[in-house]
């Protein structure tokens, strides 16, 4: 009897929890994706304001496999990871989000879907002669708030005497870099490659990569949507669609 009660209360608790499940998403007929669309080529606004990119196409494939439509909601990165997901405001997040053990304590990740790195962006020609590893002492380095770039800077650059400047918005960091207010800005390798392609000569990569990391799709802790996402990723890889999406969106290394 006691046992039955325990099972019952566990059931009630789990159904009242905010983790969106496959069944719930199918019932409402829509998969709500949260993303911070300031991160080309993974998510960014097109000329008409529509959010597009590699991540959006992957999320759309998941929605298709679930038989529902995709709704894309713009959320600032700081609110997205992880509050928008843990509170149930969105069913999932994709935003070039790096899988880390700390984050995995509060959300569920899909299998890795893209290998990335944190790199240093400097002004074209590197007027500040920034290098890494090298003397970062006394240099001001920009990072985006709540990102793995910020975490790596705190762990690796601050102890070496660098000053870390935190931006909520990556574009503000780029503006400061152009104005020479910071020596370098930390960003994700594929977004930096995209910037270099779109604005030739304005930006360069400097020094060695700071980290190697993998992106994952993000779901509420314990949601069965993560397993569904893994099935979609496997399908896209096997059919060649994954490679087509890479070719469509991402500057190849
Ligand atoms: N990969 C980094 C992280 O997970 C940065 C992601 C930033 N994404 C964005 N859409 N602004 O922390």
TrEMBL record:
Cellular component aspect of the GO annotation: cell envelope; membrane
UniProt KW keywords: Signal
Cellular compartments annotated: Cell envelope
Single GO MF annotation: ligand-gated monoatomic ion channel activity
Database matches in SUPFAM superfamilies: Periplasmic binding protein-like II
Record-linked PROSITE patterns: SBP_BACTERIAL_3
Residue ranges constituting the Ionotropic glutamate receptor C-terminal domain according to the UniProt record: 30-252
Pfam families membership: SBP_bac_3
Alphabetized InterPro entries for the sequence: Iontro_rcpt_C, SBP_3_CS, Solute-binding_3/MltF_N
Principal localisation: other
Signal sequence region: 1-19
Keyword Signal recorded: yes
Domain Solute-binding protein family 3/N-terminal stretches: 30-253
Family according to the record: Belongs to the bacterial solute-binding protein 3 family.
Protein name per UniProt: Amino acid ABC transporter substrate-binding protein
